[in-house]
Amino acid sequence: MSIRYDEEESVDVQMTPLIDCVFLLLIFFLVSSQMKKIEKELPITLPKANVTVDVKATPDLVTVSVDKYGEFYVNSQKVGSEGLRSALHKARGTNPDRRIRVSGDMYAPFRSIVQVLDTCQGEGLNVVGINIDPKR
Q1: Whole-model pTM?
Q2: Residue in 122, 118, 112 with CA at minimum distance from that of residue 73
Q3: Are residues 114 and 74 in contact, defined by beta-carbon separation less than 8 angstroms?
Q4: The Cα angle at residue 70 between residues 114 and 87, in degrees rounded to 5
Q5: CA 31 to each of CA 24, 25, 34, 36, 37: distance values in angstroms, whole numbers, following the listed order
């Protein structure tokens, strides 16, 4: 048995949800590309190594960088030695197993790298990795 309708209903494609999705994707790609760019702006020449282990970066990863003058940067923000301690203390407070990545310039004073590692251990952060040049 067939049913007849007096008026045929037209099928419309709703554009508003589609425009919302495209707009959200655009914002996502703009923000993610800016976050990658910030970390690359630091003038650090990473050392090379013969034996490496590739570790995937996690969203809660804290990057501590040391430039060739021994200045400290936490997530690309310049901090002093007290700023380093407070940033690592804050990271430890929210997650005791938080990963720390140390990116030290190959010409950075060794005492600065040791100070970063000592501060990490003093704050109870034991998952610390050293970042090296990926091009071996």
Answers
A1: 0.63
A2: 112
A3: no
A4: 70
A5: 11, 10, 5, 9, 10
Output the six-digit token pair for 50. Answer: 């013969």
pLDDT in tens, 77-117: 899 888 999 999 988 887 778 889 998 888 999 899 999 99
Residue 88 near residue 100, CB atoms below 8 Å: yes
Using DSSP, state whether 23 is helix, strand or coil.
helix
Name every residue whose Cβ is closer than 8 Å to that of residue 55 and which is 6 or more positions away in sequence: 129
Judged by DSSP in three states, 93 sits in: helix
Round to whole Å and give the CA distance between 37 and 79: 19
* Nearest by Cα to 76 from 115, 91, 67, 109: 67
Has residue 12 got a pLDDT over 90? no
Number of other residues whose CB lies within 10 A of the CB of residue 124:
12
